[in-house]
Amino acid sequence: MDSKIREFREDDIPELLEIAKTTWEGHDHLPGMLKHWMSNSNCNPFVMELDGKVVSVANLKVIDQGKTGWMEGLRVHPDFREQGLAALMTNHIVDVASAMKLPKIRLVTATENLAPRKLAESVDMSIIGQYSVFWKGWRRNFKWTYEVDSVKRMESSDVLEFAQSHPELLPNTTLIHLWDVFDLTRKNVDVIAKTAEFWSGEESSASLSSGFQHDTRYGPEWCFTIYATTPDAFLSNLSVHLNHARDLGIKILMCIHPPDFEEQYQNVKWLKRRNHGIQLLLFERVLS
Predict the structure, then answer these.
(1) Is there a contact between 172 and 281 (Cβ–Cβ < 8 Å)?
(2) What's the pLDDT tens digit per position in 117-159?
(3) Over the range 89-120, which residues count as b (16 or more CB within 10 Å of their CB) and which as e?
(4) Roughly how many angstroms between the first and final C-alpha of the chain, as a whole number?
(5) Quick one: which of 273, 219, 203 has its CA closest to 32?
(6) Helix (H) or strand (E) holding 200
(7) Using CA atoms in the order 108, 98, 56, 182, what is the torsion angle rounded to 10 degrees?
């Protein structure tokens, strides 16, 4: 078969949407990313063609003020999996990052997905972090508050100093914003602050969180990340974000947090049943 890897075009979208239907049980976030890739000059998306048919896609997004190549969106059509196409796309993206002289590359993948993990390891990437994500929606209003720790709104200008004074919160000195992971720098805090708000607590234990409204094809989500050192700090931040989402009329939560707090799901009645949840691994390779 005749194959080639080329730059992504707008007329590739219908074929890529078909691929997305078979990923994550139809909950793939790829459809919402495609137009963003086209409009963002920092994105470098590629597709693979076999005999004129688009069978794979992947994107290299430059973040951290040009210091990180973020590898994302790798998909292969189900009829062409287990043929080495994902490896070809991965190696192509790494070659592009090297040619662009990016200092490092990163990606995240689900803990349970052994194939993507092997792909990352095949290009000499190593695990540097792990975090959990859950989605929870509700139809009826309910009341739940947890205020063991006082959590207050924080100005973005204070985030860097706060995080540096509590290094236990960010062991990898990174900030997670939706699907991207940024180095902890003043400029990156400002980038996140363009769409997100910050909260912090430091009474009995330290905590930091950020959240923003993320518009999806299922409706608006309140997407937030919690960094905490104790269950009380985690639950106190969770309470703040739940009630903030309710105030905004948003009825879907997407919460990103350290995996240690998954056991708290069973201690909160409304969290015992969730729409969806995954654990993610953060991989990195230093290129230069």
Answers:
(1) no
(2) 999 999 999 999 999 999 999 877 778 999 999 999 999 999 9
(3) bbebbbebbeeeebebbbbbbeeeeeebbebb
(4) 36
(5) 219
(6) strand 197-202
(7) 30
